[in-house]
Amino acid sequence: MSILNEISELVIKGDIANVKAKVSEAMEQKVDASSILNDGLMPGINEIGDRFAKGQVFVPNVLLSAKAMNAGVELIQPLLASAGDTTIGTAVIGTVKGDLHDIGKNLVGLMMKSVNMKVIDLGANVPGEKFIEAIKEYNPQIVGLSALLTTTMNEQAHIIEQFKEAGVRDKVKVMIGGAPVTQMWADKIGADAFTTDAAEASRWAKQYVTKG
Ligand code: B1M
Which residues of 51-71 are buried (b: 16+ CB within 10 A; e: fewer)? Predict the structure, then answer.
């Protein structure tokens, strides 16, 4: 079994200590950080999600796998986000109210930092009011709304409406993302951008703040 497959298996098992050990080993072997992420950690968390959907595992298992994934991401973080000193722009990001999934949002923040964006991360379960406060305080060019549940996708739409009511909608570009989110949904709710993964999110952000 390759070291990346081993990492996937350990994420599935929720074996935090050994995920850390294997990721460190992979880093010592100079395995590319994005391979560790995309071919090791991600397949593991996706598999546990599939097993959860089939009723083969339960929330505590998923939670352990998420912790194991986070432990692995933490180790490769310095390699993924090797940003310089100059900031090109500011993004406020968060997972919307009612939604506790933050791994993907954290990766979006990490990759945005890697292209020298300043990132204000409001965390998970964030109501529209908090985003509005942050827009007023930090004056970001981009606000990123993450949602992982089909139910909380509606909160993305609600927050955009709240931005309009608060008179801040035109001050920012709103990017949305998360596994159930689509371009069609972005068009429907009037978001400015939909990106499928953290790398694309950071490319879009860089392109927008540097070229408009
Ligand atoms: Co939950 N969960 N979960 N879960 N969970 C899903 C999302 C689910 C698909 C599992 C399944 O059934 N197969 C399902 C949702 C079904 C649906 O609505 N369609 C589900 C469910 C049902 C639930 C609960 C309701 C379960 C329950 O309690 N009965 C519950 C809800 C809690 C809540 O939020 N209120 C719940 C809880 C949890 C845990 C807390 C146990 C844990 C989260 C821990 C944490 O995040 N700290 C968890 C996990 C880990 C998952 C799965 C297995 C993995 C999610 C993940 O982190 N993926 C997930 C199944 C799956 O997605 N395969 C599942 C890895 C991550 C890197 O990918 O987040 O997609 P992702 O991010 C990607 C892209 O989407 C994109 O970039 C990232 C990659 O680069 N992206 C953006 C994300 N945000 C973006 C924002 C952007 C741009 C791109 O711009 C702003």
Answer: beeeeebeeebbebbbebbbb
- pTM exceeds cut of 0.90: yes
Tell which residue, 120, 114, 123, has the closest CA to residue 95: 123
Per-10-residue mean pLDDT, the chain, length 212: 97 98 98 94 95 97 96 92 79 98 94 92 98 98 98 98 98 98 98 96 96 82
Ligand 1 atom 52: the closest Cα is on which residue? 49
45 lines ligand 1 (CB under 6 A): yes
Distance CA 91, CA 209 (A): 10
Nearest to 137 by CA among 129, 147, 145: 129
Which one of 101, 156, 176, 206 would you pick to mutate in the ligand 1 pocket, going by the greatest count of ligand atoms within 8 A of its CB?
A: 101
Gap from CA of 147 to ligand 1 centroid (Å): 8
Tell me if 126 sits within 8 A of 100, measured CB to CB: no
